[in-house]
TrEMBL record:
NCBIfam families linked to this entry: RhaI_grampos (TIGR02635)
Keyword Translocase found: no
Pfam families: AP_endonuc_2
Highest taxon, organism lineage: Bacteria
Gene: rhaI
Organism in which the protein naturally occurs: Salibacterium salarium
Ranges for domain Xylose isomerase-like TIM barrel: 84-268
Name listed for the protein in its UniProt record: L-rhamnose isomerase
EC number: 5.3.1.14
Keyword Metal-binding attached: yes
Swiss-Prot/TrEMBL keywords: Isomerase, Manganese, Metal-binding
Length: 407
């Protein structure tokens, strides 16, 4: 088989570079990336939601579509849910449905932004009864997580203001902490609260958790069950995200990722479509942390919840998810090919060019034969995109018609 010929050559080249290829293969097999239920439904911009044919009509069908992504990639065994978008009468039934499809329910995401009451904030609202309503929803999500055996509740807040003087920053900070503490106290000891930050939108003057430092500080104040979630689309242009990632790893407070790509703002596009090198450098920091001498850093890196947070507005959703998973896997594989000893040596000698070369060289490797071999060994499709496209599933779901679930 052609694949074998190319793989044999690849293996030889990597051995010559001092790479332990069996270790790399086992790391790639362990990489799992969660898909978001909302990425399978119809979505759009504030200008228009374009309805696609065959979109899932309820949470159960979203899981059926997500199962296709996992079936062909072998790399996305869990699905994040968003409440109330995925509200069902019987969460145990949703859990069994997921399991029957070889999936599990991943992070539970509360929604504190789509209710009229939240016009001026949720957990930061000046009105105590609205803060209480927001807290009750957070507690409801902890209960749902317990019911479906999910260990993660993932928080993103739209809270913020549009004008100077609109609200009291310090007061809002205290209210947010108070609400989150109530939620934190209700979580089991093995549960995790992931705190996401974003510097703008929908609020344009200030947001209450504007950056990683604020999320990190909040997590620290709450306790060890709280960690930071890095959404790759939530930074000002030119932010060095890999540095933030390394810092949070070292502080043992990096909980997870929302992967997506963007060109201008929080565009929620297919991860690595625009920024493959940025995602690579982030993953490279993680791979390096996996080899740290501090076991705390190693276990933080090993517990990262990798998730996609994307909306597919004009492209078909299932293949867009497959593409995204493959992109992350591809860049993670490249990151595993950095010769860390060589890099360390170059850093110690302050050899700038050799250090940069060590990081760049791995990025430039074509990992196609490696990934094909890994997929074959995992029992996944060697070419997941092609296999999905030939499976007939896309045609089958057209009977659902238009007007499926939307966010
Ligand atoms: C809004 O910015 C957002 O994209 C956040 O990234 C959340 O994680 C996501 O929506 C789901 O609520
Ligand atoms: Mn996000
Ligand atoms: Mn976002």
């Amino acid at each position: 088989m052609m694949t074998d010929k190319y793989y044999a050559l690849f293996e030889e080249q990597q051995k010559d570079r001092g790479i332990n290829i069996e270790k790399v293969k086992s790391k790639i097999k362990q990489l799992k990336v969660e898909t978001p239920s909302w990425g399978f439904g119809d979505s759009g911009t504030r200008f228009k939601v374009f309805e696609q044919e065959g979109v899932p009509r309820d949470p159960f069908e979203k899981f059926e579509d997500a199962a296709q992504v996992h079936k062909f990639t072998g790399t996305s065994p869990s699905v994040a849910i968003h409440i109330p978008w995925d509200k069902v009468d019987d969460y145990k039934a949703l859990k069994s449905h997921a399991e029957s499809l070889d999936l599990s329910i991943g992070a539970v995401n509360p929604n504190l932004f789509q209710d009229n009451d939240y016009k001026f904030g949720s957990v930061t609202n000046v009105d105590k009864s609205i803060r209480q309503k927001a807290t009750d929803h957070l507690l409801e999500c902890v209960d749902i997580a317990k019911e479906v055996d999910s260990k993660i509740v993932s928080l993103w807040f739209a809270d913020g203001t549009n004008y100077p003087g609109q609200a009291d920053f310090r007061q809002r900070k205290k209210w947010m902490q108070e609400c989150l503490q109530t939620m934190y106290d209700k979580m089991d000891s093995d549960m995790r609260m992931l705190i996401e930050y974003k510097f703008f939108e929908p609020a344009f003057y200030h947001t209450d958790l504007a950056d990683w430092g604020m999320a990190f500080n909040m997590a620290n104040k709450l306790g060890p069950k709280a960690e930071v979630l890095v959404d790759t689309g939530h930074h000002p242009q030119a932010t060095n995200i890999e540095h933030i990632v390394a810092y949070l790893l070292d502080e043992k407070r990096l909980g997870g990722f929302h992967f997506n790509s963007r060109k201008y703002a929080d565009d929620d596009l297919i991860v690595a479509a625009h920024n493959p090198h940025e995602i690579y450098l982030i993953l490279q920091q993680i791979v390096a942390a996996e080899e740290d001498s501090d076991q705390g850093v190693v276990s933080t890196a090993g517990n990262i919840a990798y998730m996609l947070d994307q909306c597919h507005n004009v492209e078909p959703k299932i293949p867009a998810m497959i593409r995204s998973i493959l992109n992350v896997q591809n860049l993670y594989a490249k990151a595993c090919l950095v010769n860390l000893e060589e890099l360390k040596e170059a850093q110690e000698k302050q050899d700038v060019l050799r250090a940069e070369q060590a990081v760049r060289e791995a990025y430039e490797c074509d990992v196609t034969p490696l990934l094909q071999a890994v997929r074959e060994e995992m029992g996944a499709a060697v070419d997941p995109m092609k296999a999905y496209q030939e499976s007939g599933y896309a045609e089958k779901i057209l009977t659902r018609g238009k007007g499926g679930a939307s966010w």
